C-alpha cells in the first residue's frame, strides 16, 4: 500500500490534466485505505484548486468519500468554494458532495445555504444534482419549509431531468415533508402527468411514500389506474409498487386481480414484475387457491424471465400452498428448464423448501 500510495501521490502532480483527473478519482476511491491521510487530504485540497475544471470536478466528487475521514470544517470550506466555481461541472460535483457530507458537517446552516443557492443555479445539470442532494440532506436541513419550497420549484422545473430528479427526491423525503397533505397533492398530480417519464418517476415516489400518504384510498386508486397505463414502463413500475404496498392497500382482492391481470400483459417485463410480487403477496391473497393456480400458470410461461420470477414466487408461497405436492412437482420440473438461470433458481428454492416437502423420500 505504501508504494501504491506514493505512486498515487506522484500522479496528483502530473503535468497532464487527464492524469490528474484520474488521480483525483482514484484518491476518492482509495482514501479510506491510504496510509497517510493528512498528505492525501492535502493532495485533494490542492486538486480542488487545480487550473483545470475537469480536475476540480473530479476532486469535488472525491470529497464525497473523504469527508467522513477528514476535519469537517476544512471539508465544508473546500466544498463551499467549489459551489461557487465558474465551471458548472464543478458546481454539479460540489452539489453532490454537499448531499453526501451534509450529515457530518458541523455548520449545517452554511451547508444548507450553499445547497439552497445551487437549487437556483443557471445550469440545469447543477440543479439536477442539487435536487438529488436535497434527498440526502432533507431530514437534517435547518429550514424544512424552505427546503420543501425548493423541492416544489424543482419539481416544476422547465428541464425534464431536473424535474425527474426532484420527483425521485419527493418519494424519499415524503416522511419529512412539513405539510404531507400538500406533498400528497403534488404527488397525486404527477401521477396524471402527460409525460410518461414523469408518471414513471411518480409511481416510484408513490411506492416509497405509500405508508405515509394521508389518503391511502386515493393513493390506491392512483396505483390501480397506473397498472392500466398506456406506457409499459409505467405499468411495470406500478406492478412493483403494488406488490410493495400490498399489505397496506384497502382492497386486496382488487389489488390481487390487478397483479394477476399484469401477469398476462403483452410486455414480458410487466409480466415478470407482477409474477414476482404474486409470491410476496400470496400470504394476504383473498383466495389462495386461485392465487396458487395463477402462480402455477406462470411457471409455464413461454418467457424464461417470467418463469425465473415465478420460481422465486413459489419460494415465497410454498409454505402456504394449498397443494404442496403440485408445488414440489412444479419446482422439480423447473430444475430441467432449458434456461440455466431458471434451473439454478429452482434448485435453490428446492433446497430451502425441502423441510416442507410432502414426500421427503421421493424428494431425496
How much helix, percentage-wise, in residues? Answer: 55-70%
Extended strand count: 0
Structural class by helix and strand composition: mainly alpha
Low-pLDDT regions: none
Distance between the termini: 51 Å
Number of helices: 21
Strand content: under 5%
**Radius of gyration, CA atoms, in whole angstroms:** 25 Å
Shape descriptor? globular
Mean pLDDT: 88
Helix and strand run = HHHHHHHHHHHHHHHHHHHHH
| Biggest sheet overview | none
Description of the molecule:
By secondary structure, this protein is mostly helical. 70% of the residues lie in helices and 0% in strands. It contains 21 helices and no strands.
Features:
mainly alpha, 21 helices, 364 residues, globular, Leucine-rich Repeat Variant
Chart the SSEs and their pairings.
Blueprint: H1 2-11, H2 17-30, H3 37-47, H4 53-66, H5 72-82, H6 88-101, H7 108-118, H8 124-137, H9 144-155, H10 160-173, H11 180-190, H12 196-209, H13 216-226, H14 232-245, H15 252-262, H16 268-281, H17 288-298, H18 304-317, H19 324-334, H20 340-353, H21 360-363
Helix pairs in contact: 2-4, 3-4, 4-5, 4-6, 5-6, 6-7, 6-8, 7-8, 8-9, 8-10, 9-10, 10-12, 12-14, 13-14, 14-15, 14-16, 15-16, 16-18, 17-18, 18-20, 19-20
Quick overview of this protein structure:
The protein is mainly α. 70% of the residues lie in helices and 0% in strands.
Amino acid at each position: 500500500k505504501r508504494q501504491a500510495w506514493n505512486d498515487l501521490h506522484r500522479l496528483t502532480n502530473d503535468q497532464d490534466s487527464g492524469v490528474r483527473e484520474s488521480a483525483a478519482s482514484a484518491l476518492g476511491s482509495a482514501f479510506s485505505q491510504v496510509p497517510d491521510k493528512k498528505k492525501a487530504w492535502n493532495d485533494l485540497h490542492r486538486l480542488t484548486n487545480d487550473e483545470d475544471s475537469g480536475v476540480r470536478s473530479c476532486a469535488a466528487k472525491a470529497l464525497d468519500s473523504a469527508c467522513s475521514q477528514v476535519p469537517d470544517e476544512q471539508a465544508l470550506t473546500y466544498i463551499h468554494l467549489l459551489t461557487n466555481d465558474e465551471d458548472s461541472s464543478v458546481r454539479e460535483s460540489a452539489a453532490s458532495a454537499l448531499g453526501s457530507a451534509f450529515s457530518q458537517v458541523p455548520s449545517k446552516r452554511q451547508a444548507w445555504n450553499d445547497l439552497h443557492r445551487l437549487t437556483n443555479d443557471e445550469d440545469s445539470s447543477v440543479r439536477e444534482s442539487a435536487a438529488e442532494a436535497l434527498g440526502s440532506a432533507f431530514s437534517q436541513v435547518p429550514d424544512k419549509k424552505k427546503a420543501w419550497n425548493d423541492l416544489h420549484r424543482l419539481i416544476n422545473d422547465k428541464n425534464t431531468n431536473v424535474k425527474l430528479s426532484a420527483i425521485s427526491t419527493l418519494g424519499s423525503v415524503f416522511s419529512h415533508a412539513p405539510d404531507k397533505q400538500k406533498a400528497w397533492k403534488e404527488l397525486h398530480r404527477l401521477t396524471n402527468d402527460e409525460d410518461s417519464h414523469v408518471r414513471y418517476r411518480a409511481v416510484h415516489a408513490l411506492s416509497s411514500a405509500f405508508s405515509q400518504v394521508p389518503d391511502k384510498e386515493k393513493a390506491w386508486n392512483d396505483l390501480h389506474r397506473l397498472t392500466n397505463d398506456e406506457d409499459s414502463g409505467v405499468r411495470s413500475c406500478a406492478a412493483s409498487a403494488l406488490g410493495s404496498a400490498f399489505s397496506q392497500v384497502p382492497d386486496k382482492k382488487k389489488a390481487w386481480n390487478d397483479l394477476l391481470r399484469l401477469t398476462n400483459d403483452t410486455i414480458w417485463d410487466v409480466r415478470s414484475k407482477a409474477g414476482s410480487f404474486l409470491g410476496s403477496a400470496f400470504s394476504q391473497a383473498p383466495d389462495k387457491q386461485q392465487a396458487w393456480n395463477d402462480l402455477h400458470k406462470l411457471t409455464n410461461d413461454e418467457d424464461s424471465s417470467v418463469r425465473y420470477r415465478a420460481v422465486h414466487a413459489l419460494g415465497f408461497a410454498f409454505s402456504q400452498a394449498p397443494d404442496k405436492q403440485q408445488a414440489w412437482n412444479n419446482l422439480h420440473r423447473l430444475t430441467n428448464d432449458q434456461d440455466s438461470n431458471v434451473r439454478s433458481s429452482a434448485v435453490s428454492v428446492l433446497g430451502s423448501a425441502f423441510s416442507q416437502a410432502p414426500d421427503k423420500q421421493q424428494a431425496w
